[in-house]
């Protein structure tokens, strides 16, 4: 399989065409952002941590009957995936009240949500991913009623599988964001499942083990990613130290093809 032209570049991943039918390559870059791109850095090895954890979760979910876009890892930063027609929804499953649900609603942080709460946002950076309800999703023709029911069902199945898996490693799955796409009439899980898209706490200490460490300056981001990736996948820890690239270097990197929002940043 040969990597072709760049198809799409997001905040932390790039998608390339290939010479293999219905197959793309997703590159997990070392870029890290928060607050709709208001905070940006480049951290060594960050892409490989997220790629490795995403591959681990995709393989685990496939073994348990969840259809995903994942095919195989090509190297530490790149994975081959099925071509999907992505559905313009971000599905957030919440098991514990944290983040924006605490800021926007009268929940106390740490409150267990039983049953889990599903929140669906419109994936649009220009509009800061506004929250949707079922009627709006149907009115916008983003998904059919059958597809919406299927997406919610799969999301809860993923939540059960990953919550149980992570609990064995002493990790609490607080919440996570996932995306889906169509391959013909089949709905498949796409995008990634990593520390960038999940909120993870140590079950005992409640220490953050995800991108909140970066968002809110809670500590060494790459040391945290290294440690949690090892806990999840069972891989040996790395000794590499994360380094930020100078701002001048960052400005010369390929710009994202996604529009840059100018309004107040949104946090999950």
Structure in words:
With 268 residues, this protein is α+β, with helices and mostly antiparallel strands. It has two domains: 3-85 and 222-238, 2-Layer Sandwich (Phosphorylase Kinase, domain 1); 87-202, D-amino Acid Aminotransferase, Chain A, domain 1 (2-Layer Sandwich). It is 28% helix and 31% strand. It contains seven helices and 14 strands. It has helices at 46-63, 100-104, 134-139, 145-167, 212-215, 221-233, 247-251; strands spanning 3-9, 13-18, 23-28, 31-34, 39-42, 70-73, 78-82, 85-86, 89-96, 112-122, 131-132, 171-183, 186-190, 198-202. The strands form three sheets. Strands 8, 9, 10, 11, 12, 13 and 14 form a seven-stranded antiparallel beta sheet that branches. The chain has a five-stranded antiparallel beta sheet with strand order 1-2-3-7-6.
Q: Mind sketching the topology for me?
A:
Elements: E1 3-9, E2 13-18, E3 23-28, E4 31-34, E5 39-42, H1 46-63, E6 70-73, E7 78-82, E8 85-86, E9 89-96, H2 100-104, E10 112-122, E11 131-132, H3 134-139, H4 145-167, E12 171-183, E13 186-190, E14 198-202, H5 212-215, H6 221-233, H7 247-251
Antiparallel strand pairs: 1-2, 2-3, 3-7, 4-5, 6-7, 8-12, 9-10, 9-12, 10-11, 12-13, 12-14
Helix pairs in contact: 1-6
List keywords for this structure.
2 domains, 268 residues, seven-stranded antiparallel beta sheet, five-stranded antiparallel beta sheet, D-amino Acid Aminotransferase, Chain A, domain 1, 7 helices, alpha+beta, Phosphorylase Kinase, domain 1
């Amino acid at each position: 399989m040969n990597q072709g032209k760049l198809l799409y570049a997001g905040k932390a991943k790039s998608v390339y065409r290939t010479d293999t039918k219905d197959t793309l390559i997703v590159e997990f870059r070392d870029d890290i952002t928060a607050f709709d791109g208001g905070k940006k850095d480049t951290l060594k090895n960050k892409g490989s941590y997220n790629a490795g954890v995403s591959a681990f979760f995709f393989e685990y979910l496939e073994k348990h009957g969840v259809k995903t876009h994942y095919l195989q890892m090509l190297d530490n930063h790149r994975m081959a995936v099925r071509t999907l027609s992505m559905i313009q929804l971000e599905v957030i499953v919440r098991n514990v009240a944290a983040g924006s649900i605490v800021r926007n609603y009268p929940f106390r942080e740490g409150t267990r949500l039983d049953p889990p709460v599903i929140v669906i946002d419109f994936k649009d950076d220009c509009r800061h991913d506004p929250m949707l309800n079922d009627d709006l999703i149907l009115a916008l023709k983003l998904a059919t009623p059958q597809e919406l029911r299927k997406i919610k069902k799969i999301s809860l199945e993923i939540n059960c599988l990953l919550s149980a898996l992570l609990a064995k490693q002493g990790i609490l799955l607080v919440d996570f964001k996932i995306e889906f796409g169509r391959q013909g009439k089949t709905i498949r899980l796409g995008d990634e499942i990593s520390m960038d898209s999940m909120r993870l706490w140590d079950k005992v200490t409640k220490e953050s083990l995800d991108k909140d460490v970066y968002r809110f300056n809670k500590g060494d981001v790459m040391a945290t990613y290294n440690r949690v990736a090892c806990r999840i996948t069972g891989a040996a820890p790395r000794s590499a130290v994360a380094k930020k690239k100078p701002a001048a270097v960052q400005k010369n990197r390929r710009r994202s093809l996604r529009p840059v929002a100018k309004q107040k940043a949104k946090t999950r």
